[in-house]
Amino acid sequence: MRYQEPMLKEGALRDKTIVVTGGGTGLGRSMTRYFLELGANVVITSRKFNILEQTANELVAETGGKVLPVACDVRHYEEVKHMQALALETFGAVHAVVNNAAGNFISPTERLSHRAFDTIVDIVLRGSYNCTLAFGKDWIEKKQAGTFLNISVSYAWTGSGFTVPSACAKAGVLALTRSLAAEWGRYGIRSNAIAPGPFPTEGAWSRLFPEEALPKSLVEKFKPRKRHPPGAGGRASGTGQPGRVPGF
Fold first, then answer.
1. pTM given for the model
2. Distance CA 61, CA 63 (A)
3. Is 77 a catalytic residue?
4. Of 77, 129, 155, 187, catalytic
5. How confident is the model at residue 233 (pLDDT cuts 50, 70, 90)?
């Protein structure tokens, strides 16, 4: 099987608009590029507009698609609603939301302050349900079908030492996904989650595997490629071929 071939046919997402939170870098950027290649319009969001704008310009030049960059801190519902209003004003409708924005770091839990714990949970869980509520309510009111794609992690099921805030938040995202798949399915709203495993992006690796802060034996032990049978992790924009994810 040739794993680098696209999963979907050319034009599969034509005339669809997708919101990708955390869309300026890493996995979010890679997914955005693939959506554009398939014909979708994409709204990318994060807190850093300069990065969003640069990413949007690069992806438009590379794909010829339409990208709307919007600065939005998903922890704040009013900012999510503002982003939603701009998306609807620009493209008329939104058909899917990828809850990808996240934060994480590796630390013994006893060293964390409650504010550090709050920061991760607020971005990952609060950010996901803020976007889900905003767009889900709009779809239900308009009797419009829609799709949520939530980015989870394998340790949402198993738990994980040293990334406890993230594990708690991602487990909440998984519960949100399962619960709304059951509750909102009757409205034509699909809730999906994927747990793609480690992607060696700069943002993830610098926080999860800070070599200067960990003993060499621990760094080697936790390197994802050492723990993955094929000896490889995922690849996102800037680190190899674009990752491929399920479509809508």
1. 0.82
2. 6
3. no
4. 155
5. low
